[in-house]
Amino acid sequence: MEFRQLGRSGLKVPVFSFGTATFGGTTEFFKVWGDTDVKAASRLIDICMEAGINFFDTANIYSAGASEEVLGAAIKGRRHDMLISTKATFSMGDGPNDKGSSRFHLIKACEDSLKRLGTDHIDLYFMHGFDALTPVEETLRALDDLITAGKIRYIGCSNFSGWHVMKSLAASEKDGLARYVAYQGYYSLANRDYEWELMPLAQDQGLGTMVWSPLGWGRLTGKIRRGQKPTEGRMASESGAVGGPEVNEEHLYNIVDVLDEIAKETGKTIPQVALNWLSTRPTISNIVIGARTEDQLRQNLGALGWTLRADQIERLDNVSHKTPAYPYWHQMGFDERNPKPVKW
Predict the structure, then answer these.
(1) How many other CB atoms are found less than 10 A from the CB of residue 75?
(2) pTM of the prediction?
(3) What φ, ψ does residue 144 adopt, rounded to 5°?
(4) Which end of the chain is flanked by fewer CB atoms within 10 Å, N or C?
(5) Which contacts (CB < 8 Å, 24+ apart) does range 166-171 have?
(6) Domain spans of the chain?
(7) Helix, strand, coil share of the chain (percent; to 5)
(8) Quick one: three-class SS letters along 158-198?
(9) E strand intervals along the chain
């Protein structure tokens, strides 16, 4: 397993982590993703550890805390060998202070996550979304205090806009507060918007990128083909695409066609090629993979240990290209003074 530095921090993380959104399945939304119990979770964690994946990602809102509880039970007795990340900000109750990134909410959310996980510290704590009602200084001071208390080690942000990230980083520098070291965001061959602003920002500011949903919300698993309806997995469900990004069908089919060609050339599978492509991109410290079954997990692990040829990467780049939104398409005309991390 390859280990990479997480942004400008001193922390080394495996290039793959295991996402536990499939653990629990106690709410209607997350039940569609999976309902992995403690026994099955323990087996998946065993396979990860055998492959060198010692990093597990969860969030307090996954199945209303049940994902954290299942993960905590499954890692009991071996926590010292692992890295754990979880998240806060989104609603965990009906009260006016049961959501957001206020000091009030974050301290309680962190304490609750620690209890559910059965641990005394969280290695990487993410703000799951931006809270525009709370001053960033209040959020960062609360996180800095939690670090000082030894309850969290590092902090990151997820699903922020570029200006949200920069405002926070500037506040950290100005006030001498802990700094976000990682950005967890959606990025895949099916949707490359991350490259337009957030990737250049991460490169410039030294943020490590953790990718969620690297297979395009299940669209790059090989189960969705031109002229065929998926017959298995989450995307076969009527609610499987709920909450995910929109993707033009023809654009998706064109990408899958090229993935299929390269899979045959390399002797790999479509998801293995898609994940391997992602691992070559700038700023990528970690890719969060998920699986409901042992077979799915082992297949995803097969994305590592080999290299796509330059011409294969170029074909994937070309077929997945979309004209950026303004002002990014305009900036392409001045790229000799504004170099991009990758070809848009």
Answers:
(1) 21
(2) 0.94
(3) -65, -40
(4) N
(5) 166/201, 166/205, 167/136, 168/136, 168/139, 168/140, 169/205, 171/136, 171/137, 171/140
(6) 3-331
(7) 40, 15, 45
(8) ECCCHHHHHHHHHHHHHHCCCCEEEEEEECECCECHHHCCH
(9) 3-5, 12-14, 16-19, 55-57, 83-88, 122-127, 152-158, 180-186, 208-212, 284-289
Catalytic residue (choose from 62, 125, 187, 194): 62
Which DSSP category does 245 fall into? P
Tell me, yes or no, if 62 is annotated catalytic. yes
Which pair of structure tokens corresponds to residue 15? 């290039």
Q: Decide yes or no: CATH 3.20.20.100 for domain 3-331.
A: yes
The token pair at 98 is 């049961």
Amino acid letter, 125: Y
Pairwise CA distance, residues 276 & 285, whole Å:
13
What does each of the 344 residues of the chain score in pLDDT, given as a tens digit? 899 999 999 999 999 999 999 999 999 899 988 999 999 999 999 999 999 999 999 999 999 999 999 999 999 999 998 999 999 999 999 999 999 999 999 999 999 999 999 999 999 999 999 999 999 999 999 999 999 999 999 999 999 999 999 999 999 999 999 999 999 999 999 999 999 999 999 999 999 999 999 999 899 999 888 877 766 665 555 555 677 788 999 999 999 999 999 999 999 999 999 999 999 999 999 999 999 999 999 999 999 999 999 999 999 999 999 999 999 999 988 888 888 999 88
Which residue has tokens 């299940």? 218
Strand partners, 186: 212
Q: Which two tokens stand for residue 91?
A: 């609603």
